[in-house]
Amino acid sequence: MNYLGHAVLSFGNPETLAGNMIGDYVKGSVILDSFPENIKKGIQLHRKIDAFADQHPASLKAKNLFRPDYRLYAGAFVDSLYDHFLANDPHFFPAEKSLFDFSQKVYADLDKQREWLPEQFQKMLPYMVSSNWLYNYRTLKGMKNSFDGLVRRAKYLDSSDKAYEILVGHYYELNQYYFDFIDDVSKYVKNELNNI
C-alpha cells in the first residue's frame, strides 16, 4: 500500500497516522526510541503492513504482471495501484467528497505532528498537499502522475509508460486482486494495533 492505504489503515489516530506515513523515511530500529510511543507504533505498523502486502497471494499475482518490465520495482507499482482502487472503493469512500474530506484531515493531522516528520518527508509534504495526491489517486491521470513520481525517485527506471499500460490493460484483474487483499489487510492491521 502507498500513502492513502497507510493513512486509511491508521484508523483515525493522528500519531499512528504520522508514524505510518513516515515509515519509509525512518530506517533501522535504534532511531525509533526518539519518537513518541504512538508515532513509534505507527512506524512499526507501516513495516508490518508492507511485509504483509509483499507476501499476500493477491499482491504476488499482481506483481507478476509488472515484474517482466520492472523487476524489483514491481511491488512499488502494485502498492501505488492499490491506492487507486482504495480511493474508488465505496466501502471506504462512498463519494468523492468523503475522499476529499479524508485527504484534508490527513494533511491537517500531519501538520500538527510536523516536529516528528523527518526532513525529507517535510520537504515532500507540500507537494503532496498542493497536488492532493491522496485524492487524485482516484483518477487514471493521478495514477500516471504517481507512476511518473515513482520512476523519478528510482535509480534504475526511466519510464512508467509500460506500467500505465499494464494498469489499463489489466484493470479489472488488478481490481480483483485489490478486493482479494483489502479485507485481509484491514483485519490484520486491526489485530496488530492491539499487539504492538
UniProtKB/TrEMBL annotation:
GO terms for molecular function: [acyl-carrier-protein] phosphodiesterase activity. It comes from the Bacteria. Keywords: Hydrolase, Lipid biosynthesis, Lipid metabolism. GO terms for biological process: fatty acid biosynthetic process. InterPro entries: ACP_PD. Pfam families: ACP_PD. The keyword DNA-binding does not apply. This is DUF479 domain-containing protein.
